[in-house]
Structure formats: structure tokens, C-alpha cells
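Hey Z.,

So I finally got round to the adenosine monophosphate thing we talked about over coffee. Here's the setup:
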Amino acid sequence: MSSINADLHCHSNVSDGTLSPEAVAERAFNNGVRLWALTDHDEVGGQRRACEAANRLGMDYLTGSEISVTYAGKTVHIVGLGFDADNEQLVKGLADTRGGRERRAHEMAEDLAKVGIHGAFEGALKYVGNPDLISRTHFARYLVEIGLCADSHEVFRRYLVEGKPGYVGHRWATLGNAVRWITQAGGVAVIAHPGRYDFTPNEEHALFTEFKALGGEGVEVVTGSHTPDEYVKYADMARAFDLLASRGSDFHDPSESHIDLGALPDLPGKLTPVWEALSHRIVRA
Ligand code: AMP
Ligand code: MN
Ligand code: MN
Ligand code: MN
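And the result:
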């Protein structure tokens, strides 16, 4: 079962991806994915379309979302899988988390204007598929468009990150709320790409410990954001903390994403895949 091609982390234009939910479904299926979850940031607005498109293609589906959390002064992402996407508390919690993105975007544009980059709000907005969900990714696309950076990776080195032009600190959901919204809606909470956070080993240990205590049950081991060494490290962490293991490309766009849908290696051995624990929540084709 663990060798099934599952891709449980990716984005559509309902958040900061560029393809529609239907187009992401098709690309996933054509790449061999047989169990899929669309995990738009702080949103479940694409879930019905994604599930219907998946099932039409013959692909099993799990609901998903990637929730932005502020933990120990840093942004951490928590992926929810297999929840009831109509659950009121979850829907409201996500709406609250999205609120403030537009104001933040105006502040980001003001900060960019200070270094001579004008019109960034309007420029970013051109790339936005969901007016509720303007993100740094949309600004990155605009900065590439005007030739300021060669690609989004360069943008996130020179702009939009702490200490660089265009960065605006933001308070997202708490870890406790994010885990609660997911679990009370019948889903499993998963720490997204833990290798991406600049935590010290002590801080990382505290995150895992607190997450477990709050009812979190999973961690991404194989993701487009991890190096092969990190697959090994987080497989060990999953075993040490008795967490379910997840796998997902974090695909956003065919040219921006270096890992395509379904293209990752299998989970390492001696792990319990998160989809085994969620078999009752899978919407089968
Ligand atoms: P936001 O939620 O508005 O803070 O935007 C976060 C999004 O920016 C992430 O979901 C990624 O899509 C993108 N992002 C953040 N850091 C990087 C990076 N170093 N390289 C490429 N994309 C990034
Ligand atoms: Mn993103
Ligand atoms: Mn993320
Ligand atoms: Mn993501």
C-alpha cells in the first residue's frame, strides 16, 4: 500500500498555483498519481472541483488544505488531510486566517516602493486567481515579469523574506487552532516540509512535541522541499515521534516547480503512510 503513487501536497489557482484544480488533477493523473489531495493555502474553495475531477479521471481523492501558522515567531505550515470540507469551524478558521492578506499585500507594495519598485500591488494582483488569497508568490511572479529577478527562487533570496525589501511580518493562525480545526473536522494534521524552517534542533523538537500534544498525527517526509538527506532525517523523526508519514510534491506551476506532481520517490520503509490511517476518508473513484 505504501508504494501507491500518492501526492498529498500541491496548489491550484485557488491559492498560489497557476493551474485550475481540474488541470492539476489531470497533470497528476497523467504523471501516475493514483491518490491525490489538493492543498491550497488557507482555503477549501477548490475541494469539490478537485474531488470531482479526480474521480472522473479514475483517481482517488483526499480533501486537503495547507494552513499558515505562526509558531515561535516563525511561519510554519500545517497540512490538513481527509477532513470534512464543509465543516463550519474549519471553514471559519480558514476565512479568519486569510483575512488580513490584502492589507499585508498593500504594506508589502509600500515597502517595495521604498526601494523604487512601484505598482507591485497591481502587478501581483494580475496573477491572483482568488481575491482572498494574495500571497508572496504572486508578488514573486510580478518581480520576475519586470525582469528584477530571473526566477522565483532568486526573488525569495533578495526580496519578500525577513530583512529584505517587501517583507511584512504577519500573524497567522496558532498551532493549536490549526490542529483543532483539522481534527474536529475528521482530518489528520501533518507538519508540512519541516526541513524548510530555520529552527534549531531544540526548537524543532519543541515543535514536534507540542504538535503531538495538540493532537497532530503526521509529518511530511518526502516532499519537493526536502533533500534526500532530509527524507532520512524526517523518516527518523516520524519514527521517534510515532507520526504518520506523508508525501507531496508542493507543485505550484509547470515552470516554477522543480518537482512535478507524482515525481517523488516512495516513502522510506518502516513508516506508516498517512493514507493508511485515512483509508475511511478516501473518496474512491
Ligand atoms: P505567503 O503565504 O503569502 O507568505 O507566501 C508563501 C508562499 O511563497 C509559499 O507557499 C511558497 O509558494 C512561496 N515561497 C516561500 N518561500 C519560497 C522560496 N524560498 N522559494 C520559492 N517559493 C517560496
Ligand atoms: Mn505556495
Ligand atoms: Mn508550505
Ligand atoms: Mn505548499
